[in-house]
Amino acid sequence: MSNLNKDILIGLLFIAGTWSFISGQFIFSTMLFAGAAIYSNMVMRTSETR
Questions:
Q1: pLDDT tens-digit profile of 1-50?
Q2: Contacts of 32-39 spanning 24+ positions with Cβ under 8 A
Q3: pTM (2 decimals)?
Q4: Maximum CA extent, the chain
Q5: Which residues contact 36 (CB under 8 A, 6 or more apart)?
Q6: Minimal CA–CA distance to 20: which of 5, 31, 9, 35?
């Protein structure tokens, strides 16, 4: 996956998490924020090893 696609995926997870937090779906927003954080850390670690 290219860097642009990875950035778009992380951004969409973050925006969806923010929107669900505003809507009051706190458990779902927590899962989305955690998914964005874990995925962005995985992307950063794979790019550092190259």
A1: 678 888 888 889 899 999 999 999 999 899 999 988 898 888 877 666 66
A2: 36/10, 39/6, 39/9, 39/10, 39/13
A3: 0.72
A4: 41
A5: 10, 13, 14, 17
A6: 31
**What single letter denotes the amino acid at residue 14?**
F
Alpha-carbon distances of 1 from 6, 7, 23, 29, rounded to whole Å: 7, 10, 31, 25
Token digits for 49? 């090893």
3 state DSSP class of 2 = coil
Q: In one letter, which amino acid is 23?
A: S
- CA pair distance 50, 38, nearest whole angstrom: 19
Amino acid identity, residue 15?
I
